[in-house]
Amino acid sequence: MSEENLRRRRSIFDLIDEYFEGLEAWAERVRETLLERPSWNCRTCTIEPLRDIIVTSDEVIVTVDLPYAEENTVQVKPISKDTIEVSAKMRRKVSFDDFGITHHRGEFQRFQCRTRIPVPVYMDRIEIRFKRGILEIRLPRKHEYEIPIE
Amino acid sequence: MNEEIRIIERKEIPKGAVMLFGFPDVGLVGVIAASHLISELGLEEVAYIDSRLLPPIIVLHEGLPHSPVRIFGDKRILLAVSETALQGELIYPIMHALIDWGKNREVKMMISISGIPVQDRQDLEELKVFAAASNPDMLKMAQDKGIEILREGYMVGPQAVMLQYCATIGLPALTLLAQCFFQYPDPEAAAKVLEQLENFTGLKVDVSKLLEKGEEIRLKARDMMKRTQQELAKMRKTQEYDIPLYIT
Fold first, then answer.
1. For chain A, which residues make up each domain, given as ranges?
2. A106 touches chain B (CB under 8 A)
């Protein structure tokens, strides 16, 4: 590597880039580790549903896929300032047998999951709707400070 | 033939078939559609992929091992399907190997079945199907069947590699994309794209069972969708939402 390249490599911007790349890789490893668990729990007879979070400039939209869910049993509870819990009863019991799996035993009739909201929100202004088995939760964002434009 | 990927044939392969691809992608549209085609048309496994590039996974059916990437078929169609989410770096070698194999077996056309994510999908009553093709004749054929063309934009995943490679080697190819959920299995989108597929294969497929079993499929497909989400994120699939800078 030439001297010029070495000098360029040591610039503050390279160091910042390297720091953020490292941080991104670490976050990816943590995320994958957290995801590596069964999506069902035989002790609580619950299934963890698929979910997604979208953060826009003024709200956070959480969607949860709840096939077979009975609409009137869908519950969304804020359990802390940044976490919500979703649960719903299913119209029918589902067992491993239904999926052709014989090496596990268990029956499930409930969805349950907890989701952390990544930015500050007003939990008391939560809006919920349920359509085509998709639960949509809208939370207005809290903007705790503003940067004045001169 | 790609030396790192072997395609092992289990049955005699017909000539002049249409080759279809149903790979894990947004809404698992391709995989759900492929699974329905296999059961409705009674397709049999005719070949499978053997490769050390694949993760050390087998799929057990009735206690017996199967490759996660297999080709099903009959005299009219050959259908390549993956039962596991594929890492981005595997897509080029796997698609090239499958396309080279199909070309050697004189397939007349390749069609990839997939989805195109749309915001607020749950509010859509009627889903549209879009098409992109490897050459102007295929594009015209899709237009003549009343399918809207995906004119500008990015495409990420197996269907992108298929279109590009087929364009390079001069094999007619088409990608059919139904509007779908990005993150959730979408059997309705799979049914929609199968309805359009009839225009190109001549195969009438009843999708009523697929629609009836929609909720069951969504529940069954959760784990595969979760693994696919991880791979789509690494592939930067959200680039399909980007507006391209068109360079003539």
1. 3-34, 39-140
2. no
Task: Over range A59-82, report the average pLDDT.
Answer: 95
Where does the pLDDT of residue A29 fall: very low under 50, low under 70, confident under 90, or very high at 90 and above?
low
B223/A67 Cβ within 8 A = no
Residue B142 CA to residue B112 CA, distance in Å, equals 13
Query: Are A52 and B216 a contacting pair at CB < 8 A?
Result: no
Q: What fold characterizes domain A39-140?
A: Immunoglobulin-like (2.60.40)
Measure in Å the smallest separation between the Cα of A114 and chain B Cα atoms. 16
Q: Quick check: A99 contacting B, CB < 8 Å?
A: yes
| ipTM reported for the complex, 2 dp | 0.85
- Please check whether residue B182 touches A, CB under 8 A: yes
Q: What is the pLDDT of residue A34?
A: 60
Task: Check CB contact under 8 Å for A68 and B215.
Answer: yes
Ranges in chain B, pLDDT < 50: 1
Domains located in chain B, CATH noted: 5-235 (3.40.50.10900)
Tell me the count of A-B CB pairs closer than 8 A: 47
Interface residue B126 vs chain A (CB under 8 A) = no
Amino acid A8: pLDDT: 52
Question: Are A133 and B215 an interchain contact pair (Cβ–Cβ within 8 Å)?
Answer: yes
